[in-house]
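Q: Could you fold this chain for me?
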Amino acid sequence: MKTTVYIEYYGKQILESDILAKAEATLKAAGKKASDIKDLTLYVKPEENQVYYVLGDDENGSFPVD
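A: Sure. Below is the predicted structure, expressed as structure tokens.
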């Protein structure tokens, strides 16, 4: 089954896959390897154009979405 998820808010449309790709790029730029990531939680706040993340229990950050 192919699934496509869009997040829409105030005329903006963001693809889930774009958010995941940007999260991966952000973490890779921070020196993280995919094998290092066991638990990642993303919080999308379209009204702020930001995605906040929690990596494991102790690391967090954010990145913008366009």
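A (continued): Helices lie at 16-29.
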